[in-house]
Design brief:
The complex is a heterodimer of chains A (about 325) and B (about 400). With about 325 residues, chain A is an all-alpha fold. Chain A is built from twelve helices and two strands; from the N terminus they run αααααααββααααα. Classes of the chains: A mainly alpha (about 325), B mainly alpha (about 400). Chains A and B meet through helix 6, helix 9 and helix 12 of A and strand 1, helix 6, helix 7, helix 10 and helix 17 of B.
């Protein structure tokens, strides 16, 4: 096949999948959140269960005027949502949906993921600085501080996985989780990493991921009640929608990373190899949905932390714990 | 300039760095956590507040002036709207003051009805606090649960008075006779709606459940504790100095409650405790309010048992003329001491009405308490002080 055609096809498929997943996540958050909060949530849009509410919201945002403050640094202000969106979409380029269903088969997939996912902070900082708004500025700076604090435990948690798998390729990591550990009564048992010593790093990864997503309890960069909407304060219309969609795409993205690294990715026990490409996406989707639900659940359970509390949590607890975790896993890796 | 010229170059660099001006941040009047239109002009460096100046008056509706051209009965409808989350509680001290001036006393049953409705207003006001305080910390779930449970209280108030927020139910010498109760003869039917006490007791059982919900949703929440314990500590002397009252004062360890001190409604016949805490921080102010909901439930249960039968209105002339005189009348509102200074020169309307509103006095501590705090703590402290802008600006 022509390489350009293949590239275009991959892009279109990925875009559709990611945007649909983000819209569904928004819907689930609206609906699940409502039921946790003793209300009904979207009800009328789309005729039943309010299923079309995210679409209606999107259509509403599209109609709004695209405003930029008079003193804003316009090129930067306009570019910022694209940077965030690009970072969110970039994650999906290397997430394997099946042994052959992957946008780009990189040997350094993990490395690429960590790089592209922290890219969104640049967009947030750009938005915060260029808005010419004090609330936005504080929000942007909080986001930057948060990124520095949380990128390290995130990377250290992933390093533990890389050590155990012995590869930085995401497909390699999934394969490592499907390798037979032992045979029990003639059945070959393979376990995902979360059950084979990566429980601690899974929790560290999830905490750091929620912080990186700036969602409650780590949504200080947005902090509605303190900074109005933080770096989003001045954004309207399509640019706000891009931030919004980007956030939910990143929720799905980080859940997909966690599912791949810790929960066995597209693989499932007793799945014949010939079925892996067909059933893979569904299996991954199942795991991703569970993690997305947990992230939503957290949002409706806890209030927001303070920036300094988050910093002390990252530097005093998560980083030492993840360093010890790496040491332990490395020792086990060498010993066995 | 001369001193700068004399300095060595390295010293100049240092002093320039020290002189970095802070940022002036205008918080409000339109801001999610200023409960309406409070404006705070904060000088900050980073997120640390160095100086803060509250600017009020964006919601000034001129009730004191309006009262000078309204009859006493009409003023009751105005004072409802001062602290709108506890409308009924605002009426009581005003009407008690007028009654003192006129020299009538409401019949016993009317007094008890006032007491029950005041306590219902207290519960409803504290439930609004249970919504807004966690919301300001970033927890949106208690909001919906508490608003849902507040409906039970508002329904009761609506049953009796016809209004959810603005009952306008007190009359000089009693309360408004409500139709629909008692037996069939007209005279007896001017009473509380049938089945009111049964519904009240049922609602009180629901409130017990609500208090449990509050405890599981908020009190035990680790992050709420992390955000509020030790934040915004107001020592007892400072609280008294700034004229604070109500739960904010009691959280600092001062057991001062006008219900015990003044004996204005038949509170002396009821067994209840004054909830106090000693820490004086945001979390204690929250805990005092949870405790007060429980106490109010206790009070209402007893009041429903005790309330005697009888008329709702004392004999009062149709056109009320108040003799010359002055009176200061106060009561324990959900937010603290609420008082009216009524000056009458005789006639149908007051010469002057001074409203001592609770939130105004409670907020006067802001410039002292907020200095040196971080912006997230500012939100937590302001939320814990529980003010309503209508009550500040009047």
């Amino acid at each position: 096949m022509n390489i350009w055609l293949e590239l275009a096809l991959t892009l279109v498929v990925m875009l559709v999948v990611v945007l649909t997943a983000s819209l569904v996540t928004i819907y689930v958050e609206l609906k699940a959140g409502s039921h946790m909060q003793a209300r009904i949530g979207p009800y009328y849009a789309g005729g039943r269960w309010g299923w079309a509410q995210p679409l209606a919201d999107g259509a509403k945002f599209l109609q709004k005027e695209d405003l930029a403050p008079a003193k804003a640094d316009r090129p930067v202000y306009r570019l910022a949502p694209f940077v965030v969106m690009m970072s969110a979409l970039g994650i999906f380029a290397v997430i394997p949906l099946g042994p052959d269903l992957v946008g780009a088969k990189l040997d350094l997939g993990v490395y690429f993921l960590l790089a592209i996912s922290s890219f969104s902070a640049l967009g947030v900082l750009m938005a915060g600085w260029s808005s010419a708004n004090k609330y936005s500025l504080i929000g942007g700076l909080r986001a930057a501080a948060q990124l520095i604090a949380y990128e390290i435990p995130l990377i250290l948690a992933v390093v533990a996985v890389v050590i155990q798998a012995g590869t930085m390729s995401l497909i390699g990591i999934v394969d490592a989780q499907q390798a037979t550990l032992f045979t029990l009564g003639g059945i070959e048992v393979a376990l995902p990493f979360i059950l084979t010593g990566q429980l601690v790093s899974f929790f560290i990864f999830m905490i750091a991921a929620v912080a990186e997503l700036s969602r409650i309890p780590f949504d200080m960069p947005i902090a509605e009640s303190e900074l109005t909407m933080g770096y989003l304060t001045e954004y309207t219309g399509i640019r706000f929608t891009m931030f919004f969609l980007g956030e939910y795409a990143t929720v799905v993205g980080f859940s997909a990373i966690a599912a791949t690294l810790y929960l066995g990715g597209y693989g499932a026990p007793f799945l014949p190899e010939s079925m892996a490409n067909v059933a893979g996406p569904a299996i991954l989707l199942l795991k991703v949905s569970a993690l997305v639900f947990v992230i939503i659940w957290i949002r409706f359970t806890w209030p927001r932390l303070r920036e300094d509390q988050l910093q002390s949590m990252a530097w005093r607890w998560l980083i030492p714990i993840s360093l010890i975790n790496i040491a332990v896993i490395a020792v086990f890796k060498v010993a066995f | 300039m001369t001193s700068r010229q004399l300095m060595h170059r390295s010293e100049v660099a240092v002093s320039v760095e020290l002189e970095t001006p802070g940022m002036t941040l205008n918080i409000g009047p339109q801001h999610p956590s200023t409960h309406g239109v409070l404006r705070l002009v904060a000088k900050i460096s980073g997120e640390r507040i160095h100086e803060i100046e509250p600017v009020i008056g964006y919601m000034h509706r001129g009730y004191e002036k309006l009262s000078e051209v309204r009859t006493y009965a009409q003023i009751t409808a105005l004072v409802n709207r001062i602290d709108w989350v506890a409308g009924f509680a605002n009426e009581v001290p005003f009407i008690l003051g007028v009654e003192k001036l006129v020299g009538v006393e409401a019949p016993e049953r009317a007094q008890w009805i006032r007491l029950i409705l005041t306590e219902l207003a207290r519960i409803s006001s504290h439930l609004v606090f249970m919504c807004s305080f966690p919301l300001e910390l970033g927890a949106s779930t208690p909001l919906m649960h508490m608003l849902r449970d507040r409906e039970h209280i508002l329904e009761l108030i609506e049953d009796v008075t016809g209004g959810r927020f603005h009952p306008n139910f007190n009359r000089v010498g009693g309360v408004k006779p409500a139709y629909g109760g008692g037996s069939k003869t007209k005279k007896q039917s001017m009473d509380l709606p049938a089945g009111f006490f049964k519904r009240t007791l049922k609602a009180m059982d629901l409130m017990d459940q609500t208090c449990e919900d509050i405890d599981t949703l908020v009190t035990g929440n680790e992050l709420v504790r992390a955000r509020t314990i030790g934040i915004g500590v107001i020592p007892a002397e400072k609280a008294i100095e700034y004229g604070m009252s109500g739960p904010n004062l009691r959280a600092s360890g001062v057991a001062y409650d006008l219900r015990k001190v003044d004996n204005y409604l038949p509170y002396d016949q009821i067994d209840f405790d004054v909830v106090t805490r000693t820490g004086g921080d945001s979390f204690d102010r929250y805990l005092v309010r949870v405790g007060e909901i429980r106490e109010s439930v206790k009070i209402i249960r007893q009041a429903v048992d005790i309330i005697p039968a009888g008329p709702l209105q004392a004999k009062v002339p149709r056109v009320l003329k108040v003799p010359e005189g002055q009176v200061y009348s106060r009561a324990e509102n959900p937010k603290g001491e609420f008082g009216y200074y009524i000056v009458s020169e005789g006639g149908k309307m007051p010469y002057r009405l001074k409203i001592r509103s609770t939130s105004f006095s409670n907020l006067s501590i802001l410039p002292w308490i907020l200095v040196g705090q971080l912006i997230p703590d500012l939100v937590a402290i302001m939320g814990s002080l529980d003010f309503v802008l209508g009550d500040v600006d009047r």
